[in-house]
Amino acid sequence: MIKFTEDVKQQLYKLAEDKNIYLEGNILKIIDSSEDVDLQKYIKSAREKDDTMREKRLEITKKVQTQNDELLEWKSKNEKINEELKNALNKAEKSEYQAVKSKEDAEKAKEAAVNDLDLLQKRTQNQLIESIVKVSLWVISGVGIITTVMFAVTLFRGIENKIVESMWSNMFGILLTNSFSIIGTIMGVKYASSAEKPNKKIKCDCNCHE
Amino acid sequence: MIDSILLVDDENLFHLVFEDACSLLDIALSLKTFNSADEAEIYFKKIVDTKSKKPDCIFVDLNIIGSTFDGIELIRRINFVHGDGVVIGIISSSNDDMEQTKAMKAGAQFWIIKSDQIEPRLEEFKKDFDGYANRILPFKVYK
């Protein structure tokens, strides 16, 4: 415990009275005020003042501490949400990339399938055309040979046969016409099945329709 | 009233809370504070080396951010490396049973749970202090 001289005590009382300045803190707890009523009053006033100030400060500090804790918690939550958002964004980007890749793969597969189908169609058409041409050639050649043989026989034997003559000339005319007709049909089929000009408008000569 | 107290806590705001609470409750005359366990250990080692007066009571936070070791390790070092003789315990917002057992094994005598209403716990601790100083009270958690 510490003891003050009378002079120090008077100075403290004067300071308190004139300027409302008191001793503060734990020093008040170690001042020996026994047998001095004035000093006891002074210490009581000083401690009341000190306690009031500390209570206020404690209240404010606690509030700040609570707010600080809340802010830290909020920051932590915010960081967590940001992290989740980043992860979600990354996942979305990955999904988008996968979708684009899948789309490209599908388009490639579609293109390959279309090409295969086109090739198959062309091969079938070619086979059909080949068969038609072969049969046509056989028929034309057969009919031509038969009528020519028959016409040659009538010529060499000197038999005048109008029917065979006209049949031969008619047959040749028909065969010639049919040959061009077959060629025309083949060309028409090829043109119609061509994928390069699917929407080409055809104008007929009579201008009746397009 | 406890003559001198040492508080080791990384949170400066809690230093103010603790100081005001101790003053209002007439718990201690002098209070020294540290922000890290490393600083506190250096201080304690210096006290032991210079044979100065040790603090009567040490309050240590459990997780001291910015320190190379935690509060329990500080208690263990003070008790087993630098010599015991002081009342020492944890002051933390945690109420983990496992940590409390670890602290008890390291030589902690009490565990005060930090909260907005810390004054009643400190008041209760003040009543028990002599029991801790005389080593007659078992480990206690102030909830």
Write the layout of secondary structure elements.
The complex is a heterodimer of chains A (210) and B (143).
Chain A (H helix, E strand, L loop, with lengths): L5 H14 L17 H121 L4 H31 L18
Helix pairs in contact in A: 2-3
Chain B lengths: L1 E7 L3 H13 L3 E7 L2 H13 L7 E4 L10 H10 L6 E6 L4 H10 L3 E4 L5 H15 L6 E3 L1
Helix pairs in contact in B: 2-3, 3-4
Number of DSSP helical runs of chain A: 3
Structural class of chain A: mainly alpha
Strand share of the residues of chain B?
15-25%
Major sheet details of chain B: 6 strands, parallel
Q: Mean of residue pLDDT of chain B?
A: 91
- Write down the Rg of chain A: 59 Å
State the shape of chain A: rod-shaped
Please mark out the parts of chain A with pLDDT under 50 across 5 or more consecutive residues, or reply none.
none
Q: What oligomeric state best describes the polypeptide chains here?
A: heterodimer
DSSP strand (E) fraction of chain A? Answer: under 5%
Fourth CATH level, the homologous superfamily of chain B? Response regulator
Continuous helix count of chain B: 5
Q: What this model shows, in words?
A:
The complex is a heterodimer of chains A (210) and B (143). Chain A has 210 residues and is mainly α. Chain A has a domain at 6-70. Chain A is 79% helix and 0% strand. Chain A is built from three helices and no strands. Chain A is rod-shaped. Chain A starts with 5 loop residues before the first helix and ends in an 18-residue tail after the last helix. The mean pLDDT of chain A is 85. The radius of gyration of chain B is 14 Å and the shape is globular. In chain B, 43% of the residues lie in helices and 22% in strands. Chain B has helices at 12-24, 37-49, 71-80, 97-106, 119-133; strands spanning 2-8, 28-34, 57-60, 87-92, 110-113, 140-142. Chain B is an alpha/beta fold and 143 residues long. Chain B has five helices and six strands; from the N terminus they run E-H-E-H-E-H-E-H-E-H-E. In chain B, helix 2 runs parallel beside helix 3 and helix 3 (71-80) runs parallel beside helix 4 (97-106). The mean pLDDT of chain B is 91. At the A-B interface, helix 2 of A face helix 1 and strand 2 of B.
